[in-house]
Design brief:
SpoVT-AbrB domain-containing protein, alpha+beta, 7 strands, SpoVT-AbrB_dom, 2 helices, SpoVT-AbrB_sf, DNA binding, 5-stranded antiparallel beta sheet, single chain
């Protein structure tokens, strides 16, 4: 699970109860509002602003519970970018 900062969640439309789309690309996971007809992974944003990162994406990226990562904000694309350190 990852907690998305409230200020940016609201700005990007990732409010609790809505779906987030998770895209693995360029050794990163992009988290943005889900498109209706997407075939990418989708997860609900929780009441606390968390999003569950699916196991297949964690495995693809090589993330373990002990790993450090950074969360970047892309204002142009209205998304969060999760990058393993």
């Amino acid at each position: 699970m990852i907690t998305l900062p409230k200020q940016w969640r609201q700005r990007f439309g990732l409010i609790p109860g809505r779906m987030a789309e998770l895209i693995y690309q360029n050794d990163s996971i992009y988290i943005k509002p889900a498109r209706k007809l997407t075939t990418n992974n989708k997860r609900y944003v929780s009441e606390k602003g968390t999003v569950h990162i699916p196991k297949e994406l964690r495995d693809e990226m090589g993330i373990t519970p002990q790993d450090s990562y950074t969360l970047h904000i892309n204002e142009e694309q209205h998304c969060f970018i999760l990058i393993r350190e």
